[in-house]
Amino acid sequence: MNQYIKDVCNKSKNEERNDKDLKLWAEGFLELHTPSRSDYAKKYEEIIETLSTNEDSLSDENKDTIDTIPKPAVKHKTSSDTDTLVLNLKSYRLKQSREENIKAYYIFNDKQMMDLIEKMPHSLESLLKVDGFGEVKVKKYGESILEILNEIK
Fold it and tell me: Which residues form the HRDC domain (predicted)?
């Protein structure tokens, strides 16, 4: 076995490297390396000061105006509603993909599904505003998707 290893090493075109050579290389790299000496606190201090002066410049009148803007009443979905929607949409997606013999994410991917759940479109026009849904997808899958979404509303 020893003879075989020696023969392979002798026939090899790669030059031999021993621990001494590797140590010399490592020491050479360490000599060339210079650590970065950036003071990040100083670098970003000016930006922080600018931001704080902008906040101070807001007048009390503007703050009152901002606070008095009415917020629309939105029915918040519970996590169980969201879980149900995810399940229903995934099962619909799987069923459709098998019928059409395509990948499930071609119909809509998980990110688009979460955008659907967040925006909760109520019409085909509002479904067009959901990321990833163009005219073709809305025409093809829109009614079914809206039915699934309306089950929770």
Answer: 79-153
- For residue 132, the SS3 value is coil
Query: At residue 44, does pLDDT exceed 70?
Result: yes
Q: Do 134 and 124 meet the contact criterion of CB atoms below 8 Å apart?
A: no
Percent of the chain with pLDDT over 90: 41
pLDDT at residue number 42: 74
DSSP label of 76: P
Average pLDDT of the segment spanning 67-81: 59
- Which domains are seen in the chain, by residue range? 79-152 (1.10.150.80)
Tell me which residue has tokens 């009148």. 61
d(CA 40, CA 29): 26
113 in Cβ contact with 90 (< 8 Å): yes
Give CA–CA dist 88/50, Å, rounded: 49
Give the distance from CA 22 to its chain's centroid.
Answer: 42
Tell me how far CA of residue 130 lies from CA of 48, 87, 111, 135, in angstroms: 36, 19, 11, 11
